[in-house]
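[[Encoded backbone]]
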Amino acid sequence: MSIEFIGYIGGHQSSEIQPRSGPVLQPEYVEQVARAHEEAGFDRALVAFHSTSPDSTLIAAHAASVTKKLQFLIAHRPGFAAPTLAARQFATLDVFNGGRTAVHIITGGDDRELRADGSHIGKDERYARTDEYLDVLRQEWASEQPFDYHGSYYQVEGAHSAVRSPQQPHIPLYFGGSSAAAIAVAGKHADVYALWGETLEQVRDVVTQVRAEAARHGRSIRFSLSLRPILADTEEQAWARAERILQQATALAEQSGFVRREPPNEGSRRLLAAAAQGSRLDKRLWTGIAGLLGAQGNSTALVGTPEQVAEALLDYYDLGITTFLIRGFDPLDDAIDYGKRLIPLTRQLVAERERQAAEKVA
């Protein structure tokens, strides 16, 4: 199986240990970090979405204008634009950037955040709406003839897109969400199901569930895992760096008046369940930041030398993970470092693993 690395493009430089300096959207930084990811050998870069953030599609369009090969994973929340319109927007972008677009569907688990954009329905209803949204989106991408759709949330008549993505059969759909309702929709629609950085046991369990759900629809599905690698020349230095990151994050959280609250989504609850088992799990999974900040998003790390972290990634690869979404606590510098020391090594180890498997079959 081929392996994919996805990085992260923010509108500005910040992290749990770096407060933002300057405006929330800095075009020069977007250009710099996009070029850095391309030079580092990332396959794609994620552009995130939040109810307060700049538009992810437009950031990806700008990043594409200063790169040639880097592909993009655009986080998109269904329910706030008509699916027919969104389908044409993504297809238009995909023509302009030469087939470098993928869409990451994030339905959203935080009721309070969703109300900021005018959504007041509950979680299960949101996933029912997402199901219909993706029905229409995919038909708009694929249908050669005008089509009608009559659902509970969307009704269209004579829908048709004159613009076509260069990617066939359609633009790839990634999907996040850990609840039972989310997994049901993922099994029906997703090309890639995205997990946060959980323990090997947790990942094995979710992969099994999602595969079974996809099989109900006669589909196969790929899997992505999000992690925050912390690298150093020795294992001791890597763990010392992790401890410094925790101290810096703690100080910044106290300075900003961060208040930890009940996690709003199932993914965060799963990460906190892992953190409750300890700060160091499996070979080198570190839950320090997840435990500190309530597992708000991608917040678990693999800690060690590049060789040790690459070997840990292979443990997940053996469970069916073929995409790794990685970003550092020093976003730009870490992306550059991953390109030098982690990505090529991991690709080499995967190639060796695949070659050995092929030789056994032969």
